[in-house]
Design a protein that fits this description.
The protein is mainly alpha-helical and 151 residues long. The protein has one domain: Four Helix Bundle (Hemerythrin (Met), subunit A) (Up-down Bundle), CATH 1.20.120.10. The protein has six helices and no strands.
C-alpha cells in the first residue's frame, strides 16, 4: 500500500517536472524571439536607416544579411501556444500557421533584394527596397502581433 502511494507521488512529481520544463522552455523561446525581433529592429530601423541616408552600401549589406539570418531562425522560436503576458504574439499565429510560416521567407527575400541593390550601389533602388523591407515586416506584425499594452 505504501509502495503504491510513493509511486503515485513519484509519478506526480515527474509529471510536474515535465510540465514545468515545457512552460520554462516556452518562456525561453519568447525571450529568444523578443531578442531576435529587437535585433531586426536595431538593424532595420536604426543602423540601416542611417546607412541608407549616408549611402553606406557595405553597412546596408551587413545589416540585411543579419535580418536574413534571423528569418532562418524565426519559426523555431514560435512553438505551438508559446504565449505569455509579456508576449505580443497573437494566437492567430498557430491558427494560421501556413500563412504565418510564409512571412519569414517574404522578409528574407525583401532583405536579399535590398542587399543586392546595395551591392550594385544603386542608391535609388536601395531606398525603394528599404521601404519594401519595412513593409514586409509591417505586414506580418499587423496580422500576427498585438499592440503594445496600454497603447
Amino acid at each position: 500500500m505504501r509502495t503504491l502511494h510513493f509511486l503515485r507521488i513519484g509519478f506526480l512529481c515527474l509529471l510536474s517536472l515535465m510540465i514545468s520544463s515545457l512552460v520554462f522552455a516556452q518562456g525561453d523561446e519568447i525571450v529568444k524571439r523578443r531578442k531576435l525581433m529587437e535585433s531586426n529592429n536595431e538593424a532595420a530601423t536604426k543602423t540601416m536607416s542611417k546607412a541608407v541616408e549616408a549611402g553606406n552600401f557595405a553597412e546596408i549589406q551587413v545589416e540585411a544579411k543579419k535580418i536574413m539570418q534571423n528569418m532562418d531562425q524565426l519559426l523555431e522560436l514560435f512553438p505551438k501556444g508559446s504565449l505569455s503576458e509579456k508576449s505580443r504574439a497573437k494566437p492567430e499565429i498557430w491558427e494560421k500557421w501556413d500563412e504565418f510560416s510564409k512571412d519569414p521567407d517574404i522578409v528574407k527575400k525583401a532583405a536579399q533584394a535590398l542587399a543586392d541593390a546595395a551591392k550594385a550601389k544603386n542608391e535609388a533602388e536601395v531606398k525603394v527596397k528599404f521601404k519594401a523591407l519595412g513593409a514586409s515586416c509591417a505586414n506580418c506584425h499587423r496580422s500576427f502581433r498585438a499592440p503594445k499594452k496600454g497603447a
